[in-house]
Amino acid sequence: MGQCGITSSKTVLVFLNLIFWAAAGILCYVGAYVFITYDDYDHFFEDVYTLTPAVTIIAVGALLFIIGLIGCCATVRESRCGLATFVVILLLVFMTEVSVVVLGYVYRAKVEKEVNVSIKKVYDEYDGTNSNAQSRAIDYIQRQLQCCGIHNYSDWQNTRWYEQSKNNSTPISCCNTNFGGCTGSLTHPEDLYQEVMRTLNVDWCLNIFCMLGMLCACVVLCRRPRGPAYELLITGGTYA
């Protein structure tokens, strides 16, 4: 029964490490996608709004790959040192995630306010020119995510750019590519992207994986080493 539990735990650990690798691959792909699809390479390394998130995503993907590699090697080799390291890493990740979730819940109103203020500040600095970092970042995001504004296209009516342009329109990056004659005019809102910026909450999913990984690693880690006495007991042999 004990051996069956250890085998099952090792199988689950290998599966979880494969999930870590898959997540790492997806994150690295997303980060690399920003580099590949960015169409203004002359200013790319000046644009902290696009470069910083892309580099951060790739770094997180690389970290997940390393965690998965440590866990997989330690599981296959049944290395006590490796498994202990894997458990500590998962524990740190779990504690960090829990702290972020708790703090985010306690200060959610303040966080939402600060995020909205920061985003609105970027939108207020939009001027529609290629020399402006905020403009390049917003145009890129709206084209790639096929969205218009933070919630919808009406958000642009509260921006400085809209008040100064006085043409009752949104940026061209809001135009749905399926409509060739789109000029961004609000008189034809059906020509604009209707999607909104969305976020994906993966905190609880990652926490579940961390808890399961720590549990399985501890099961394998706590197995008693099989010495000569154990082998003699199983085989019915005697000491020489």
Structural class: mainly alpha
- State which percent range the strand residues make up: under 5%
Indicate the low-confidence ranges by residue numbers. 226-235
Radius of gyration: 26 Å
Please give the largest β-sheet: none
Q: What is the average of the pLDDT values?
A: 76
Task: Give the topology string: H per helix, E per strand.
Answer: HHHHHHHH
Quick one: overall form?
A: elongated
Total count of strands: 0
Note the gap between the termini.
30 Å
Helix content: 55-70%
By DSSP (H or I, 4+ residues per run), the number of helices equals 8
Membrane topology: Multi-pass membrane protein
Keywords: Disulfide bond, Glycoprotein, Membrane, Transmembrane, Transmembrane helix
Family: Belongs to the tetraspanin (TM4SF) family.
Subcellular location: Membrane
Q: How does the SSE layout of this entry go?
A:
Blueprint: H1 2-37, H2 48-77, H3 80-106, H4 108-124, H5 133-145, H6 160-165, H7 203-221, H8 228-235
